[in-house]
Amino acid sequence: MVLLKLTCPPERRKAIVAATLSTSSPTFSLSAEDSSAPFQIIITLRLENSTQPGRAITIRTGGTVFAPPPEGGGLDTLALGTFGPLISNSDPERRINLGQLKPHHLHTGEGPPSPNLKEREGIQFLTIPADGSVQVRHDLPISRIFEYEGTLTKEDLKPGDVYHLGINSGYLGTTWWCWGDMEGDLKDKKLSAWQEGINFGKAEKPTPEQVEKEGWVLGGNPAELTFEDRTGSAEIQFID
Questions:
Q1: Local confidence pLDDT in tens for the 240 residues of the chain
Q2: Is the dihedral of CA 211, 212, 217, 220 positive or negative?
Q3: Would you tell me how many other CB atoms lie within 10 Å of the CB of residue 202?
C-alpha cells in the first residue's frame, strides 16, 4: 500500500521524523551461509522539531517500510517494494528486484473491526522516543536477495561489485500516530481507530467523556507528522 501523503503547512506540523538508512555491515559475503545473524538493512528514526518536546510518538507500522516481518512467516516488508531494487553502481540498468507485491488484506472476523486498534489482529506499533532514536531492522540473507528476481542469480554477482538501495518514499510515513510511549503512558490506554484528518475506516470519535473515563487516545493527522529520508541510499559491496 503506497501511502497517501497530503501537504502540511509548516505551522501545522507537529514533528519531523528523520530516517537514516544503513546496513549491518558495509560488505556482504557471497560465500556466507544463511545464519542466525544475517545481513540486515537498518532504519534509524529520530524526532526533530517536536511541538511537544520530551514526549515520544507512537506510529502504526502496517503498510510502511517500518513494518516488522509477519509472525509465523509470509511476505516480508521488502517484498512489498518498500526499498525498491538493489542497483549496481557501475551499471544502473543492472538491478536486483527484492519484490513489488501488492497483497490485499480482508477483515475476516465477526462483526465490524474493534474501535480499539490494540484489539485488532495484526496491527503493530513502533514508539519513537523523545530523546535518542529507535531502529527497525530487516533481515536480508543471501537466499532472500534473489527470491523475487527473475533474471539475475547469485552467480551473476562478483566480488567487488557495489550496489545501492534506498527507501521507497511511498512507504516512508504512517497511516496513524499519536503522542506517547507504548510501554509508558499508552500501556493501559485504548488507541482509537478515529484520527484527525482523513478517517479511512469511518471510525466513530470517542466523546470527551469517553476519553476521560475509558482512557481513549485519539489519532493525530498523519499529514502533520513529516517523515524525511536523511540518507538517500546505502551501499553494499559484495565480497568472497
A1: 578 777 788 899 999 999 999 999 999 999 887 766 789 999 999 999 999 999 999 999 999 999 998 776 678 999 999 999 999 999 999 999 999 887 665 555 566 889 999 999 889 999 999 999 999 999 999 889 999 999 999 999 999 999 999 999 999 999 999 999 999 999 999 999 999 987 767 789 999 999 999 999 999 999 999 999 999 899 999 999
A2: positive
A3: 8
C-alpha distance from residue 72 to each of 35, 109, 117 (Å): 18, 19, 21
The CA distances from residue 18 to 5, 14, 128, 133, 167, in Å, are 16, 13, 10, 10, 13
Question: Cα–Cα distance between 218 and 79 in angstroms, integer?
Answer: 31
Q: Cα(144)–Cα(149) distance, rounded to whole angstroms?
A: 10
Answer yes or no: pTM beyond 0.90.
Answer: yes
Q: What is the 3-state secondary structure (H, E, C) of 29-88?
A: ECCCCCCCCCCEEEEEEEEECCCCCCCCEEEECCCCCCCCCCCCCCCCHHHHCCCCCEEE
